[in-house]
């Protein structure tokens, strides 16, 4: 992967963070508002978990902890992510996340609490859906909280909880075994596809929980305005002309998918901001 591809992949992730940041502000800072935000994140996490499970089943991949992390069909690992793997096998995954672009984005923002809430809810709901509500998911010392300098993720998915009749559909062995795993290979085209889909699913989750088109629309307008500034800076730094293909390569929201009013307004606002 060359330097430009890597920068574009980073921009795809950063623009998704901008989208989440704008959507997360549609709920007021109250007990009720926080509950709604957590519900939206959990719904989004369940969307991704279900897609991962379906993808693995379709590709004859046994759904377990190891395969969830080494075969991410619907999640993209940003090249800036740095993780110390403590343990990873079919039943257990324990990681220390030492550098995370999502956490950094919100640690440097004025709304770090909404980043922390996302970290508290997403992986839990995602893997619970993937495991059909069987696995135990524990997350602590979150990087999005400025108090900590790492994030600990621990997942346990035991054959005994799946059932003796079904465990072979998920695991090669009933006993926990040490497994050597290779790194994950993902490219820019896959990054575009995944971030486009994830942006649509994120908006869908917030639409279902919020049920207020005006607030969602305003959040997408704000997103477009912030993203336009990021794209202009990237264009200058890389000496690239801003055109539709440039936007496709650097923006997580699919500008070719504008059949709904919300995404049509986003595209119109973004192109206007960029004088296209």
- Gross morphology is globular
Radius of gyration, in angstroms, nearest whole number? 19 Å
> Which consecutive residue ranges, at least 5 long each, have pLDDT under 50?
none
Total helices: the number is 10
Number of domains: 2
CATH topology name of the largest domain, in short, is: Muramoyl-pentapeptide Carboxypeptidase, domain 2
Q: If you average the pLDDT, what whole number results?
A: 92
Terminal CA distance reads: 29 Å
What kind of sheet is the major sheet?
Answer: 4 strands, antiparallel
CATH C-level category of the largest domain: Alpha Beta
Sequence of strands across the biggest β-sheet: 1-2-4-3
> What would you say the CATH architecture of the largest domain is?
2-Layer Sandwich
| SSE succession | HHHEEHHEEHHHHH
Number of extended strands: 4
Oligomer: single chain
Going by helix content, strand content and strand pairing, the class is: alpha+beta
Beta content comes to 5-15%
Query: What proportion of the residues is helical, as a percent range?
Result: 55-70%
Structural write-up:
- This protein is an alpha+beta fold and 276 residues long.
- It folds into 2 domains: 140 residues, Muramoyl-pentapeptide Carboxypeptidase, domain 2, CATH 3.30.1380; 86 residues.
- Helix content is 56%, strand content 9%.
- It contains 10 helices and 4 strands, in the order αααββααββααααα.
- A 4-stranded antiparallel sheet has the order 1-2-4-3.
- Strand 1 and strand 2 form a beta hairpin.
- Helix 1 runs parallel beside helix 7, helix 4 packs antiparallel against helix 5 and helix 8 runs parallel beside helix 10.
- It is globular, with a radius of gyration of 19 Å.
- It starts with a helix and ends with a helix.
